């Protein structure tokens, strides 16, 4: 397993991106809107992981709620492996509570989230990229 990305809730994706570009050498950045999660995303591709900047697209976005309650900061970490169904299964068997079922997120990846109350206060995403074609 490895860290697929670290997601940070921000008020404005462009200004956050400028901050990160001031401190990191980033070759590749991908911008995306994910209507299902109601967020605008900037993906900063690092060598072996990514930083995901999340700006809410609407007031009822989960990111809006997070920003109101806690301000900008780390929103979740995402773990990836080869068999997400197996990972979810193991977690459920060990009593972990999930936020929603396994679903399709950005880039056609399968995603789901473990509730922070189940995991030491950290919202944790499981994700898996579709097979490369
Ligand atoms: Zn994520």
Structure characterization notes:
- The chain has 133 residues and is α+β, with helices and mostly antiparallel strands.
- It contains 3 helices and 8 strands.
- Strand 2 (28-34) and strand 3 form a beta hairpin.
- An 8-stranded mixed β-sheet has the order 2-3-4-1-5-8-7-6.
- The two termini are 22 Å apart.
- The model has no long low-confidence stretch (mean pLDDT 93).
- Helices cover 23% and strands 41% of the residues.
- The longest helix is centred in the N-terminal third of the chain and has 11 residues, at 13-23.
- It has helices spanning 13-23, 62-70, 84-93; strands at 2-9, 28-34, 39-45, 50-56, 73-80, 98-104, 110-114, 124-128.
- It has one domain: 2,3-Dihydroxybiphenyl 1,2-Dioxygenase, domain 1.
- Bound molecules: zinc ion (ZN).
- Zinc ion (ZN) is lined by residues 5, 7, 52, 76, 78, 125.
- The site of zinc ion has 6 residues, from strand 1 and strand 5.
């Amino acid at each position: 397993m490895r860290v697929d990305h670290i997601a940070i809730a921000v008020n404005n994706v462009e200004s956050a991106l400028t901050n990160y570009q001031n401190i990191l050498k980033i070759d590749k950045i991908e911008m995306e809107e994910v209507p299902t999660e109601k967020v605008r995303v900037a993906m900063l591709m690092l060598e072996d992981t990514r930083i995901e900047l999340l700006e809410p697209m609407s007031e009822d976005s989960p990111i809006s709620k997070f920003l109101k309650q806690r301000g900008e900061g780390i929103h979740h970490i995402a773990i990836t492996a080869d068999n997400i169904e197996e990972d979810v299964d193991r977690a459920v068997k060990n009593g972990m509570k999930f936020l929603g079922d396994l679903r399709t997120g950005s880039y056609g990846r399968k995603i789901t989230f473990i509730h922070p109350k189940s995991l030491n206060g950290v919202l944790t995403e499981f994700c898996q990229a579709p097979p490369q074609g």
